[in-house]
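Q: Structure for this?
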Amino acid sequence: MGGYKNRILEVDLSTSQIKTADIPEEDKRRFIGGSGVAAKLFLDRFNPRVDPLSPDNPLIIMNGPLTGTTLPGTSRFAVCGRSPLTGIWGEGTCGGNFGPELKFAGMDGIIFKGASPTPVYLVIEDDKIEIRDAKDLWGMDNYAVTDLLKERHGKERNPKVLSIGPAGENLVKFAAICNDKGDFIGRTGMGALMGSKKLKAVVVNGTKKVEISSPEDYASLRKLLIAKSRDSMVAQSLRSMGSDAGMDLGMMTGDIPIKNWGIGEDFELSTNLGGPSLTEKYLTRNHACSFCPIACKRVVRVDDGPFKTNEGPGPEYETCCSFGTLIMNYNLAGVIKANEWCNRYGLDTISCGATIAIAMEAYEKGLITKKDTDGIDLTWGNIEGAIELLHKIAKKEGIGAILSEGSREAAKKLGKEVEGFAVEVKGLEIPMHDPRGFHGLGLAYMTSIRGACHLMDLAYGVEEGMSSYPEAGLKENYVGQTSEGKAEMVKLCEDLGIPCNSLLICVYVTWTLSANDLAEMVRVATGFDFTLKDLLACGERTWLLKRGLGNMMGVTGKDDRLPKRILTPLKEGAAAGSVPDVEKLLREYYEIRGLDESGKPKKEVLMKAGLQDLAEKLHGTI
Amino acid sequence: MTLSFPSAEWVEEFKKQINSSEGYKKAAATWTAGVVALIISAKPEIGIQEDAGIWLDLHQGVCRDAKIVTAEEAQKAPFCITSDYARWKQVIKKELEPVKGMMQGKLKLKGDLPTIVRYIKASQELVECATRIETKFLDE
């Protein structure tokens, strides 16, 4: 079996014991890798009701069989566990260099159990694995600790570093994990989970090769896929403008959230904050994840002014919205500075910006005042105030302590009226794409396993028209502002997108390939006799697995909903007057998916998918 | 009066529509990036024997010149967008937003993409101008 290293590390931080195990062979075939395998491991071995910040909640880092190969877009890895932010299944994925390096060190993944009594970090240098004291590192920001650890362990090698900053140490619920300074596992608070274990960093260096099942087929497939992913217009757009390329087009299509999702259009915002502006004013160079021909990452610098920033990772589209359009900030340099601080502290920029947005709305409405904010002016558009508040969130000072709980819990503490404009699903703040412009995306937000998510399935790209997979049954041109036919669309997008997620293929590369290409990647790397039909079946099986796990963690049908603000029509812009038909979408989706009234997959559906264990756990003895 | 697309008469009318559009004038007020040419791929079965070009000399919100040219001529423009007849028809009927079409690869762009993206509103206004022309499509 190619692609896998057949070895996962199990590190018990309570006892300092380290041992190795393997993913069960059957589960590799059924769930492939990444968060799919991680969810299965969690279901088999851990208690879904565990307190997310307790030592008994595992932190699972997992590669896929393609990670570390040179196929385009396959440098990603996943980090999973029960989410401290949402209380349900948490996962994040990330590109960059750490995942391949872990594979080169001989690992498919790492399971961290327990919690160390004092700060520690893990060093892996091929077969040499040690837990080391991190008391001197605790309190350092991500940039500083990454530089120090590379210096400390990099004299003859080039190690890659996973770390948390002060936000993770302080257990901010939406704390992120930093990957080698330039990439982040942002969503669902995996940084807080890592911090609860007093695990400051993981340093890895490896020299082993990744074996491929069919080397000849691999070489020709690789050539074909690189050409496709490099030469497509989507790729060219991302290469020249980064993910922020989506801002200008998004303003035309009703995609962009403005003023906490309350305004439908403002072209001055997109002109100031969009990809062309970022490229022309602040870009110093591109940066690419390992082996990626697209190179969408931005490296930026702000040379002067109040937001002067040394050269470093630049903001993605999501951040340009969350610290830009969402809070009415027209200043792109201010976004870059906010991005840098989020990176250093280790904060999810989506959740952080969204939580600051509800604070700004509360401030506008007089529900909180300068007395509550320790003098910070939270007038809309005041990016300096937003950055001041960001510091307080990371350090959990004053109102920052309340906001560090995330929008849902912060709104509960700030009052009923604030709950009315917290924009989250299952506790995860909505990504910066408006479901009023794309009703299928609204359904995907409602039913996505980790809370509102636009990446675990392919609905966003398909409905926007950036990608199409007719061979999987998806149409070429969906109309965004209708709920008709969207249940079927979302189900197919999930069934195709979830195995891509488990394979850890970058969504941008996925947009440039066909569904048959994706199945071929699996076959060539692993040797599994995988067709497109098998890939879709794997997607359905994995969705059901994660949904069932979520049910065991407390998810019910009542949680499949959209927030009040999203169900309020906008008065202007391309999506004016449009609101997803939630009742229709969910009714049709539940039927297609085989969910019962309580929101659980039906027993017979689980049995048909080969998930007998889960069927027993959810529905009692079969 | 119904005008065939593409034809010299249609292009002349397009120029008139552009120059009478306040929306385009405002959105393209700072456009100095040069000529935008469109190429329609040959489709002999509907009478387009070879690739046809439309030359739009656009400058600061004004269309200074618009004419039918050869594809070879059109390729010399700083911005050249190529597609087949069916796609151009979709654009004119507002079924395909042109910048989105470029990003999807349905319209092939030769030229600086960030510049085009910056003027996405202007491209939308150009399409609005085209929709105001009573157009006869050769495949109908």
